[in-house]
């Protein structure tokens, strides 16, 4: 009878498995809970074994960023290579709009990983793919490379910053709390003196309802403002070209 062969490990340790488990820890318990000891316990391995696949904590955090951006689902890029809108492709405005909302949806799936995504450099293939798509869309608008790159980075920072604020717990009574605090701050002004906050007072007296200023509306308004600013920059660039 031949000796029995040792059974292969069903789920061997790998970089992908380590990063996936690290992201799960962050999703469930936050960034502070991510330690090599905790990760080793979740993977049922000696923590030192992790270093065969991930050299250090920085590499682990970069892996988490890569894992999140790898979830982005973007349509195939336009096939044209001359940075002009093709007849069968979405406009650069529509493509940027779609990229922005896809980013926002992906970030919402990993709210506790946002501090990592907002502070780590883009050094992964999925991250390069995202930047490349956004940059291509802006270049199709006609702007030079440096302007386009600045706009892509500004838009990315807007999206990350907005979602960071958006995922924070918001109390249902925030509208009333703000109004009450405003009332206290403006109570008993000196006779004949102006309100210390005349513009806010005008807004509230005009019927402003803070509960109607949703994060969805804020995101859309900010994104439209960025696109309009981009369109204005394009017109400015075109006029400079004509004058030259």
Structure description:
There is one protein chain. This protein is an all-alpha fold and 244 residues long. It has three domains: 15-55, Orthogonal Bundle (Arc Repressor Mutant, subunit A); 92-168 and 214-243, Tetracycline Repressor, domain 2 (Orthogonal Bundle), CATH 1.10.357; 174-211, no CATH class. The protein is built from eleven helices and no strands. The protein has helices spanning 15-29, 36-43, 47-50, 57-69, 92-108, 114-119, 125-139, 145-166, 174-185, 198-205, 215-243. The radius of gyration is 25 Å and the shape is flat.
Radius of gyration: 25 Å
Low-confidence stretches: 3-8
The overall number of domains is 3
- Tell me the structural class: mainly alpha
Question: Major sheet, described briefly?
Answer: none
At the fourth level of CATH, the homologous superfamily of the largest domain is Tetracycline Repressor, domain 2
Assign the CATH topology of the largest domain: Tetracycline Repressor, domain 2
Proportion of residues in extended strands? under 5%
Q: How many DSSP-defined strands?
A: 0
CATH architecture of the largest domain: Orthogonal Bundle
SSE run: HHHHHHHHHHH
Instruction: Specify the number of helices.
Output: 11
pLDDT averaged over residues: 87
Identify the CATH class of the largest domain. Answer: Mainly Alpha
Distance between the termini: 89 Å
| Global outline | flat
Helical content stands at 55-70%
Q: How are the secondary structure elements laid out?
A:
Blueprint: H1 15-29, H2 36-43, H3 47-50, H4 57-69, H5 92-108, H6 114-119, H7 125-139, H8 145-166, H9 174-185, H10 198-205, H11 215-243
């Amino acid at each position: 009878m031949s000796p029995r062969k040792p059974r292969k490990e069903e789920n061997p340790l790998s970089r992908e498995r380590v990063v996936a488990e690290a992201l799960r820890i962050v999703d469930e318990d936050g960034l502070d809970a991510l330690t090599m000891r905790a990760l080793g316990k979740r993977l049922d391995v000696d923590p030192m074994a992790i270093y065969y696949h991930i050299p250090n904590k920085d590499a682990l955090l970069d892996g988490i960023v890569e894992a999140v951006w790898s979830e982005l689902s973007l349509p195939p890029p336009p096939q044209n290579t001359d940075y002009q809108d093709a007849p069968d492709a979405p406009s650069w405005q529509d493509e940027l709009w779609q990229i922005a909302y896809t980013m926002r949806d992906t970030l919402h799936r990993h709210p506790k990983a946002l501090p990592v995504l907002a502070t780590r450099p883009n050094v992964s293939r999925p991250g390069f793919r995202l930047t490349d798509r956004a940059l291509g869309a802006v270049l199709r608008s006609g702007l030079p490379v440096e302007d386009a790159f600045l706009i892509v980075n500004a838009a990315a920072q807007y999206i990350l910053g907005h979602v960071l604020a958006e995922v924070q717990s918001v109390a249902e009574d925030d509208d009333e709390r703000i109004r009450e605090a405003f009332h206290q701050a403006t109570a008993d002004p000196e006779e004949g003196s102006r309100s210390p906050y005349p513009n806010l007072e005008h807004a509230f007296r005009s019927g402003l309802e803070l509960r109607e200023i949703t994060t969805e509306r804020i995101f859309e308004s900010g994104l439209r403002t960025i696109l309009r600013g981009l369109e204005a920059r394009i017109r400015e660039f075109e006029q400079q070209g004509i004058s030259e």
